[in-house]
Design a protein that fits this description.
This protein is an all-alpha fold and about 120 residues long. The protein has three helices and no strands.
Length: about 120
């Protein structure tokens, strides 16, 4: 096989570079589609599109593992319960239980045997 001159080598390298760039774009597109399908199982509707983009952009910018460890440092906020709140007897009549006024000091209570 005859030795290639510099011009031929350069043309071959450019063609190889173009082929590799196309392959990288194809793999990148497939990976992004795969990650996009993962969001179907995540409750992203709780975020606005702007918040979602900002969250992903910042996480990618600082690195996935650093972003995850930073977010895990925050205490989780309890999710709102779908079940109605537990009813207490005091809630039956729309508020706190009514209390009887405190007896005045020295007053006899009904069960102590004192006459009224």
């Amino acid at each position: 096989m005859p030795k290639m001159n510099d011009r031929e080598r350069l043309a071959k390298l450019a063609a190889d570079q173009h082929k590799l760039a196309q392959e990288a774009a194809s793999v990148r597109r497939a990976l992004r589609e795969h990650y996009g399908t993962l969001t179907a199982d995540i409750a992203v509707e709780e975020l606005s599109e702007r918040e979602f983009r900002e969250l992903l952009t910042q996480a990618i910018r600082i690195g996935g593992s650093q972003a995850v460890s930073t977010l895990r440092a925050f205490s989780p906020v309890p999710a709102p319960s779908k079940d109605p709140p537990e009813r207490r007897p005091s809630d039956e009549h729309g508020g706190a239980a009514r209390r009887r006024p405190a007896p005045s000091p020295g007053a006899a209570s009904p069960g102590d045997g004192a006459s009224q």
